[in-house]
Amino acid sequence: MRDNSAFSLQYEDYLGMIQGTLQGRLKESCPQERLLDAMRYSLLAGGKRIRPVLTMAFCRAAGGAPERALPYACAVEMLHTYSLIHDDLPCMDDDVLRRGKPTCHVVYGECTAVLAGDALQAEAFGQIARAACSPESRAAACGALAEAAGACGMCGGQYLDMALEGHALTQDDLRMIHDKKTAALLVAACRLGVLAAEGTTDSPAYLAATAYASHLGMAFQIRDDILDATASDDALGKSAGSDERNGKHTFYTLLGPEACNDLVMRYTEQAKQALPALPAPTDFLVGMADMLGQRDH
Q: For residues 54 and 186, is the Cβ–Cβ distance under 8 A?
């Protein structure tokens, strides 16, 4: 049986390192200070920091010291935060609550929110460029993150999600959207952990990171669909029921709760099956998969 106390302690350790590092960023004194305030407002709003934690955990599982992965982990969180700021805008999901707080555009206005997201995306790549890793590692990390962010990753997935609102979608359609919108950044987060440990893009660890995160991303999205339909605003820290209000077809509306829960379990198990290829113990990554598949917020 897995030691849940050990998992929780390790999670808190990663979380503390990530939070402390993020709090030290974006503190420059400059005329555009309100823009930096908006960036920090969203970046430091809380959350489970799932993606950067995965970066650090994969660095350790690939045989590296997790502290070496901190710049890459911060880059992943900055890119994720940029995507949340833009997703919440009136032209996208038009949400007013994120992580239990008013969204960035509600507090700072739409123009500043757009620029805050843009600047966080740029700073994400700056974090990688300045990391104390080899040039080969930094170049591969920039490539992996760019792939996750661009037209074949998150932006492409968000476009498809918006363009297909109100259309009847199949399970294959939903997988196509969320392989890009949700799974792509989780894949990048795990890949960056391997690269921080100076692994290569053709290594068994890199391939394991890709497989684990791809399956984890689908389990994560299906659980999100369930929670959006069944949880409260307070539990989620954001506006529940937004999928229904926006006319989105989801795994939940297509399959119902029982089939969705079965799919979450199946994808979670498939994610865990990728882990034996890693050279170091993977108990924490097994725990992450289980925790995300069972989460209630």
A: yes
